[in-house]
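INFO batch 0412 | record 1 of 1 | parsing
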Amino acid sequence: MNGLLESGMVTVAANATLEGQGRINGAVTVQTQGTIATGKSFGTLTVSNTLTLDGTNAMKISKTIWRQRHDLITGIPR
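INFO prediction complete | emitting tokens
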């Protein structure tokens, strides 16, 4: 996803990936073995609701000190 997802709950199933930049206004649940990532380049993925990470998950986050650039995933933990 890139941009704004206005409403609705998002569920990331096992072996699936939620990837992109922008804002999700609904609750997000990443189930066991699901992945959440900010996309192919540096960026921010904001969950303006609860962010639930069930079991073991993967987060793909990149950073570089050279340009002080980094990825950011934000949400309201449950």
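INFO post-check: The mean pLDDT is 82.
INFO record closed
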